[in-house]
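Quick one: sequence plus flavin-adenine dinucleotide SMILES, need structure tokens.
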Amino acid sequence: MTTNRPHIAVIGAGLAGLSCARQLQETGYMVTVFDSGAQPGGRMGTRRGQGWQCDHGAQYFTARDPAFSEEVARWEAAGVAGLWEPRLAVIGGNAPALEQRSTARFVGVPRMNAPASWLATGLVIRNRVTIRHMRHDDAGWRLRSDEHGLHPEHYDAVLFAVPPQQAAELLEPLLPLTAQLASEAVMQPCWSVTLRLAQRHAPGYDAAFVNEGPLRWLARDSSKPGREGGEVWVAQASPEWSAAHIDTPDSEVAASMVAAFRALGGPAPGAVSVHRWLYAKAAAESSRRAVWIPAVRVGLCGDWLLGGRAEDAWLSGRALASSVTASVPLCFGEPCSSAR
Ligand SMILES: Cc1cc2nc3c(=O)[nH]c(=O)nc-3n(C[C@H](O)[C@H](O)[C@H](O)COP(=O)(O)OP(=O)(O)OC[C@H]3O[C@@H](n4cnc5c(N)ncnc54)[C@H](O)[C@@H]3O)c2cc1C
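Reply:
Sure thing.
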């Protein structure tokens, strides 16, 4: 029976790819998810080491859409997300609007990638596989990866849930107009620094919007619910500073950001790790939730289509799954027109 179901490849196991894959699998499609990373989550990432962990990508997520609010409630019930109520400060410049400060903020528990791991449960996920190319023949789409060359499987549809510049590279040889649409999306970079401290740092806030110097955001990761291990803070640079230092060596970036942290009263960290997010956040939203080209059965989803937040990624994935469901026939048993 199962061999007659359409088989769909999803490239990217961030929130968008996972929400899309999960909805398709629950509808009855066969789904295989590929991700270049070691584990699902993408930009909802957590760095871990001996006795410490730190969310070094997304810091928290909000839930404005009713469908996403219901999903977050499911995550809370499953114990993989929780409310984070940091004591917030605003340092320098203009304070954010009061409404923004009173928004409910959620985090993954015990770490930011926990909701992604939960979504991934029951899905076929192939980690550490970087898709570089795809091609079509009479039996459907085939994928080529760095690790395995040309994959033997054929897919009835291929869905890209990767940052737009990466989607554009993959689509350029086959669908140049769609590649252009993706390449026009502007993504802002972000340098993120994890600061491990020897003892508790108590400046009177757990997180701060910073409006001066290199930094834009500062948070005591240890103040989030369910965290264990030593005292850890994260500092993230502004998009402008990150762009201006995009090719600066890690060590110099770390030195500048630690100096900014210390200028705000922070102690000298015992250890520092730095990460450059080339495509951290979308600078603007587009006019559609997802892109689906039924004639070739290729689709795109991701936060960048809707506005750049975790919630947008999840919603975009669902929107793409609905488009696929509406146009790729799902049938069980024989005969089945879409089965090979
Ligand atoms: C520093 C930072 C701070 C942020 N802060 C917040 C915040 O406070 N609140 C908020 O709501 N959002 C925040 N975000 C944004 C949020 O993380 C994203 O909106 C969301 O995680 C995007 O999900 P996605 O599935 O669209 O993409 P991603 O999470 O980027 O997932 C894409 C996946 O595709 C994989 N991939 C890429 N290319 C390939 C390939 N060729 N082959 C196979 N796999 C591939 C990647 O490994 C990745 O896992 C932040 C992001 C960053 C980086």
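The first helix runs from residue 15 to 27. Residues 236 and 284 are 20 Å apart (CA to CA).
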